[in-house]
Amino acid sequence: MKNSRAEACMIYDNEKTICIDTSLPVFDLLGKRYTLFILGVIGNNNTRKNFNDIYNSIPGSNRTIIARRLKELTDAGIVKRCRKEVVTYELTEKGQDIRKGVICFLDSIDRTM
């Protein structure tokens, strides 16, 4: 007998049940080119970065794609666009939480490779 979609999209961990479906848009965004690099650059030293700081920190990157990712990350509430004399970007609280999870995930992969 086939399992239902509801069962397939749930992860059970001790007393917690987590639905995968609500995370899919963020996973899609994290899987796009340069997204993880942007999270790394903006989150390192927890300082605001302007577009050129971000772009120049990612070797071989594409300006158009970096700009698109920053907009997508901003629209998703992961990055905040700050406008003063110069436009800068910083992680939101949600972005900081996601970055911490990504670090744990990457660390886990690194230890098993």
TrEMBL record:
Coiled-coil blocks: none
InterPro entries xrefs: HTH_HxlR, WH-like_DNA-bd_sf, WH_DNA-bd_sf
Stored SUPFAM superfamilies: Winged helix' DNA-binding domain
GO molecular function annotation: DNA binding
Domain (HTH hxlR-type): residue spans on this chain: 19-113
PROSITE patterns, per database record: HTH_HXLR
Domain of life where this protein originates: Archaea
Pfam family, one: HxlR
Keyword Transmembrane: no
Keyword annotations of the record: DNA-binding, Transcription, Transcription regulation
PANTHER family attached to this UniProt entry: HTH-TYPE TRANSCRIPTIONAL REGULATOR YODB (PTHR33204:SF37), TRANSCRIPTIONAL REGULATOR, MARR FAMILY (PTHR33204)
Protein name (Swiss-Prot/TrEMBL): HTH hxlR-type domain-containing protein
Organism: Ferroplasma acidarmanus Fer1
